[in-house]
DNA sequence: GATGGGGGTGAACACGTGTGCGCTACCCGG
DNA sequence: CCGGGTAGCGCACACGTGTTCACCCCCATC
C-alpha cells in the first residue's frame, strides 16, 4: 500500500518548490509558461490526484455537503437524494449521506458528525427534530437547508411543499365524490408535515359538520404497516359508525398501497366499497390496480432546488448575510381509479 | 461565523499544551487523573467537536467510505444503500454517496473523487465498469467491495447474488407452467448481471428446443420504460410467432410492473393472456394486482454484508493481506398470481 | 547526599496543501 | 554604469491533530 503522490513529489521531480507546483496546478500566480507546462505534464505522468483532505484543512472549505433523510426506504426520499446528489456533484461537491430512522436524537448526532467532518453545508429532509432544535441548528455557523420542515434563524433556510393546501385538495376531491365518513391513516409522531395533512383532514370534515374522529397512526412508512393499520382503522370505523369508512385519506402512498391490500383481505374492494387516496405520487401509483389517487409532490425538483439553494448560499460572500429564504411548492392532485366509484374514468397514466 | 474550538483553545483554557489535551481526550498516555478530568470538563463546556479533517490528515484514516450506485431510483439500490449506511454508521464511519446513471466513465470519475477524499474503502453496487476497470480498481491501493460484479485482484472483493441460478429458477417455473413462447425484457448494455439473467433465459429455452430470439432492452430501469418497451416486445413476438408471447421474463420488477401496465393498454391481461415474471422482489410486488412472481434478492442484507466485509478489511492488519473474498447469495423464488394462469392460488403476501 | 527511575508534560515535527511576502535575477531607461 | 521596476520563484508559516522524544521534577533507594 504505497503512498499517494503529493505536490512535493512533483516538486522534486520538476526541480522546483512545492508552492510553485501548487500555483501551477491551480493556474494561479505568475510564472513562466515553460515551467507551468512542465509541471503539469509531470503531474499527469505521475498520476497525481489532489488530496482534498489537506486542501480542506487549509482552505476551510471541504466542498462537501451532508444530507440527512429519515427513511431511505420511502421512494419519496430516494428522489430527494437523487436530486440533491445530482446538483451537488455537478458542482464538484461530494455528498455525505445519513439515514436516521425517525429518531430525533440520532438525527442530531448525525448533524454533529457532519459538523465534525467540516462539511460546507447541510440538507435535512423531513426532519423530526427540525422544529425542536431549530435554534441549535442556527448556532452551528453553517448554512442549512430544510426540506419540508419549518425554518427559523439566519443560517437555516427551507424548501417545502404546501402540504396543508395539498391535503385540502385531496379532501375536497373526496368530499366532492360524496363521501362523508372519511378516516385518516397517519404516520408516527407529530412531525410538522404530519400535522398539516392531518389538520387539513380534520378541518375539512369539521367545516361540513362531519365526524373527524376515526384515525390511526402507523409507526413507520412501509406498505406492511399500511396493511396492518388499516385493519385497526376499519375496526374503529365500525365501532364509531357501524360500517367501514367510505373513504380513507392516507398520509402517503406507501401506506395507501398497504391499505388497499389490507382492505382486500378484509373482503373490501377499492373503490367499490372504500375509496383510498394517498400522498406523494410515487411512480408506481399510476400502475397499481386500481390506480391510486394521490397528490404529486415534485420531489426530485425539491431535492435539486434544496441543493441549489445551499450552493448559492455557499458561493456568495459570507458577510452579505442574506435573509433566510423559504421556497414553497404546490403539488398537483392526480385523480385516478381508487377514489372514482364503480365506473372509473380513464386514469391519467404517467 | 466564528471559528470552531480546537484543542489549542482547550489547552489555553486549561493551562496545558495541546498534546496533553489530545492525549486526555483520547484516553491515551499516562497523566494525572486530575489533569485529565479537568481537561475533559473544559472540553465539554466549550462544546468541543474534534476536527475529523485534521485528524484524517495526520492519521491517514478518515473513517469514511464511499458508496457508488448506478441508479437510486430503483428501490433495489435504496435497500443496498440502507444496509451499507446502517452498518457503516454503527461503526462510526461516514458515508459518501454517489449515483452514476449507468455511465461507466462517470463511475470511474466518482471513484477517483473518493480517492481524492481519502476514503478508507469503497463499495460499488451493480457496476457497469467493474468488469472493464477491475485491474485499475486493484491499483487504487484501498479495499474495494463490489456488489453484484465480478472481482479480481488483491484489493477487490465481492458480495454477489447468484443471478444465473435465480434466473434459472424463474425460467423453470415458467416452463413448468407449460409456457413455450417466452420473451425477455432486458436492460441496457451488457453488464455482468444482465448477461447472467439473459443467458439463463436463453439456455433454458434452448435446452428444450424452444425459440429464444424475442427480446428487447430498455435503456433504463424505470416503470415507464417497461411500459414502452413491452409494446415493442409484443410486436416482435407477433412478427416471429404470429401471437403475443405466452410469458415475459423481465430483467427486474420495475420493468415487470411497467410491462403489465403496458400489456393492459394493448388489451392483454396478466396472467390470462400473458404471464409476467420479474426479479428482485421489491416490497410492492406482493401488493400489485396481479401480485408479481419474482425472485427475492436479500438486498438489505447484501448491503449490510458488503459494508461488514469492507470494515473487517479495514480493521485488520494491513500487512496480513487476506485472499480476496467472494460471498454468494441465493435468492428465493416467490410464486404469485402473475404467472399462475386463470385461477391463481393464494399468493404469498409479505 | 548522590543516583536512579518513573510519572507527567511540552517542544518539535509531521500530514498535504495554500498563501503572503520577500528574494534574486533580468531587463531597460537614463 | 547605476537604479528602479518586474517577472519568476522559494521561504516560512498556517490549518488542527497526532506522535515521538527529551525534559523536568519528585520520590525512593543505596
Structural class of chain A: alpha/beta
Task: Compute the number of helices of chain A.
Answer: 12
Low-confidence stretches of chain A: 343-350
Regarding quaternary structure, how should these chains be classified?
A: homodimer
Percent of residues in helices of chain A comes to 40-55%
CATH topology value of the largest domain in chain A: Rossmann fold
* Rg calc of chain A: 26 Å
Main sheet of chain A: which strands, in order across?
A: 2-1-3-4-5-11
**Number of discrete domains of chain A:** 3
Averaged pLDDT of chain A, please?
91
Q: Beta fraction of the residues of chain A?
A: 15-25%
Could you spell the SSE succession of chain A in H and E letters? HHHHEHEHEHEEHEHEHEHEEHEE
Q: Under the CATH scheme, which class of the largest domain in chain A? A: Alpha Beta
Q: What is the number of E strands of chain A?
A: 12
Describe what this molecule looks like in 3D.
- 2 copies of one chain form a homodimer.
- The first copy, chain A, folds into 3 domains: 7-50, Orthogonal Bundle (434 Repressor (Amino-terminal Domain)); 61-161 and 299-329, Response regulator (Rossmann fold, 3-Layer(aba) Sandwich); 163-293 and 335-339, Rossmann fold (3-Layer(aba) Sandwich), CATH 3.40.50.2300.
- Chain A has helices spanning 7-14, 18-25, 33-46, 52-59, 75-90, 104-116, 130-139, 163-176, 192-207, 223-241, 253-265, 299-315, and strands spanning 64-69, 94-99, 121-125, 144-147, 156-161, 182-187, 215-218, 247-250, 275-277, 294-296, 326-329, 332-334.
- Chain A has a 6-stranded parallel β-sheet with strand order 2-1-3-4-5-11, with helices on both faces. Chain A has a 4-stranded parallel β-sheet with strand order 7-6-8-9, sandwiched between helices.
- Chain A is elongated, with a radius of gyration of 26 Å.
- Helix content of chain A is 45%, strand content 15%.
- Chain A is built from 12 helices and 12 strands.
- Residues 343-350 of chain A have low confidence and may be disordered.
- At the A-B interface, helix 4, helix 5, strand 2, helix 6 and helix 10 of A face helix 4, helix 5, strand 2, helix 6 and helix 10 of B.
- Chain A binds a DNA duplex (30 and 30 nucleotides) through residues 4, 6-8, 16-20, 22-23, 26, 28-32, 35, 50-60.
